[in-house]
Structure to design on (166 residues):
């Protein structure tokens, strides 16, 4: 009899293990350096979630910030904010992309991602800060363009004689 009980218990344990879904551990990843980099979260449990990514930006000024969700599954109602300002998202072929032009001070920044997960949800994305101040080459091209325009305006004009026939 004890062997039947052991066999029955073993069979029940084996069936329970076969039926149970594997447990996924949540994994949050962030590699944002000087305002540029990647972030991700996988294995998000069912229900609402909020992830906060802290990083810093070396210079102050108006920054164009782009956030792109390259991959998302099992998620809805995604919202991304930078220091409390929400991104406006558009759908592209690979997922969602959003941008924001905002004045930021040098130092710590907070990117917050929130939404709802249907269970085992995941996302990954990138953040890119680009300065709104033109680079040196852009300034030189603008100055040269104004100079060429001024030279063209100062150029000697040709006299035209108009004769009217009456």
């Amino acid at each position: 009899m004890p062997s039947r009980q052991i066999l029955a218990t073993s069979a029940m344990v084996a069936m329970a293990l076969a039926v149970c879904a594997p447990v996924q551990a949540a994994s949050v990843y962030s590699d944002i350096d000087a305002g540029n980099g990647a972030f991700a979260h996988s294995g998000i449990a069912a229900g609402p979630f909020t992830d906060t990514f802290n990083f810093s930006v070396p210079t102050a000024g108006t920054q164009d910030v782009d956030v792109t969700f390259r991959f998302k599954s099992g998620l809805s109602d995604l919202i991304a904010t930078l220091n409390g300002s929400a991104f406006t998202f558009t759908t592209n072929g690979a997922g969602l992309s959003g941008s924001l032009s905002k004045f930021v001070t040098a130092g710590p920044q907070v990117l917050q991602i929130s939404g709802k997960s249907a269970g085992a949800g995941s996302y990954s994305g990138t953040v890119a800060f680009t300065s709104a101040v033109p680079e040196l080459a852009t300034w030189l091209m603008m100055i040269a363009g104004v100079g060429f325009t001024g030279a063209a305006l100062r150029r000697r004009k040709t006299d035209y004689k108009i004769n009217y026939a009456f």
User: Anything to note?
Assistant: Residues 11-25 have pLDDT under 50 and may be disordered. The chain has one domain: 24-148.
